[in-house]
């Protein structure tokens, strides 16, 4: 058996732990393991396909990023090719990918990625490629799994920042507005905000009213708490409005959203008259060493993916359904969008302890 491993989409702490666990599990079965560089680019002649050995994956479980590198614009069905005039034209290069995989003698592929990578895997499966998927996203927005590796690390990174903001906000009687990642899902903002005892949490699943946000800040002032911490998911938006964007994306990438923290901070300062500062945590949430929880989950996913290949569970994704790792069809995963449930007990507890969602 010769298998290949690919990492696509945004990086997440724990990717290297998956690669290590999958490679070692396969090698110990007597299989050969290849690593496809930069998503699927290595299978289209635009990067390398390398051999993974016990030596090449030694000592990488604690490292952030991915030794195979990654890309957000490597969809083989809509692959951007630069034209002579500098513009990009999307091409379907999936047949080329399939031919190169056959030429390399790849029997099965482990695709590690989020919704975009899962959709690519589903389409490649329909063309005959044997694929098992591993869910990857710091946003925790992949359906069918309780959580994804990288999420716990991102939450802890945000939590550390909130803890630090509290001291400077209280020292200067300021309002601090911090923007975290999550696109259309507010899990990072919710979990970090509740754990960090934020005063306001704004998420895409609960459109906010800036007037309600300012009411909370004024109420704290009246109670003698002259500072406030506001945590905002990058995709949060006001009632009747839309999420903020950061200009055009690169070809083949999803729209770039963000900048909402600065806009909200300006509104708060104008309405309340309180000095308000904003910051964007950004890619710090993706970087650095994964937490122990993420390393363990990633390792479990890697081992489970190899077992799924041995059991010929093609077109399936490994998932955490506590306390077990299971496999579920990719079609089921893509058929349901995972977002924060506004009635979830975490949201209810946040409200009960006085946190405002701006509604």
Secondary-structure element order, N to C:
EHEEEEHEHEHEHEHEHEHEEHH
State the shape: elongated
| Tally of individual domains | 2
Indicate the low-confidence ranges by residue numbers. none
Radius of gyration: 22 Å
- How many helical stretches? 10
- Report strand order across the widest sheet: 3-2-1-6-7-12-13
From the N-terminal CA to the C-terminal CA, the straight-line distance is 55 Å
Helix content: 25-40%
Could you name the CATH class of the largest domain? Alpha Beta
Please give the CATH architecture of the largest domain: 3-Layer(aba) Sandwich
CATH topology value of the largest domain: Rossmann fold
Characterize the biggest β-sheet.
7 strands, mixed
Category by helix and strand content:
alpha/beta
Oligomer: single chain
Question: How would you concisely characterize the structure shown here?
Answer:
The chain is an alpha/beta fold. 35% of the residues lie in helices and 18% in strands. The mean pLDDT is 93.
Question: Can you tell me about this structure?
Answer:
This protein is α/β, with parallel strands linked by helices and 359 residues long. The chain has two domains: 2-149 and 290-322, 3-Layer(aba) Sandwich (Rossmann fold), CATH 3.40.50.450; 153-287 and 341-352, Rossmann fold. The protein is 35% helix and 18% strand. The protein is built from ten helices and 13 strands. Strands 3-2-1-6-7-12-13 form a seven-stranded mixed β-sheet, with helices on both faces. A four-stranded parallel β-sheet has the order 9-10-8-11, sandwiched between helices. The chain has a two-stranded antiparallel sheet with strand order 4-5. β1, α1 and β2 (32-36) form a beta-alpha-beta unit. α4 packs across α5 (187-195). The chain is elongated and about 70 Å long. The chain starts with a strand and ends in a 7-residue tail after the last helix. The mean pLDDT is 93.
């Amino acid at each position: 058996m010769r298998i290949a491993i690919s990492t696509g989409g945004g990086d997440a702490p724990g990717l290297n732990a998956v690669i290590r666990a999958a490679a070692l599990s396969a090698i110990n079965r007597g299989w050969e393991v290849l690593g496809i560089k930069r998503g699927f680019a290595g299978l289209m002649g635009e990067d390398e396909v390398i051999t993974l050995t016990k030596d090449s994956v030694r000592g990488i479980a604690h490292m952030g990023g991915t030794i195979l590198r990654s890309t957000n614009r490597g969809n083989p069905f809509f692959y951007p090719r630069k034209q002579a005039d500098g513009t990009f034209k999307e091409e379907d290069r999936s047949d080329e990918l399939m031919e190169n995989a056959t030429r390399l003698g790849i029997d099965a592929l482990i695709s590690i990625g989020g919704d975009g990578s899962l959709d690519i895997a589903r389409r490649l499966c329909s063309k005959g490629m044997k694929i098992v998927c591993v869910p990857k996203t710091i946003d925790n927005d992949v359906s069918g799994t309780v959580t994804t590796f990288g999420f716990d690390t991102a939450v802890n990174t945000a939590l550390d920042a909130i803890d630090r903001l509290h001291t400077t906000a209280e020292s200067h009687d300021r309002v601090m507005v911090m923007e975290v990642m999550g696109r259309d899902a507010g899990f990072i903002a919710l979990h970090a905000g509740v754990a960090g005892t934020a005063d306001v949490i704004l998420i895409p699943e609960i459109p906010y009213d800036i007037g309600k946000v300012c009411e909370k800040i004024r109420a704290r002032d009246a109670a003698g708490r002259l500072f406030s911490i506001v945590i905002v998911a990058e995709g949060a938006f006001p009632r009747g409005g839309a999420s903020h964007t950061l200009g055009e994306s690169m070809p083949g990438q999803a729209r770039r959203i963000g900048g909402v923290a600065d806009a909200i901070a300006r509104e708060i300062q104008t309405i309340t008259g309180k000095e308000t500062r904003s910051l964007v945590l950004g890619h710090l949430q993706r970087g650095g060493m994964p937490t122990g929880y993420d390393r363990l989950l990633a390792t479990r996913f890697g081992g489970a993916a190899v077992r799924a290949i041995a059991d010929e569970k093609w077109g399936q994704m490994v998932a955490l359904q506590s306390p077990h790792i299971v496999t579920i069809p990719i079609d089921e995963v893509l058929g349901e969008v995972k977002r924060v449930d506004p009635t979830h007990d975490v949201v209810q507890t946040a409200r009960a302890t006085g946190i405002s969602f701006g509604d």
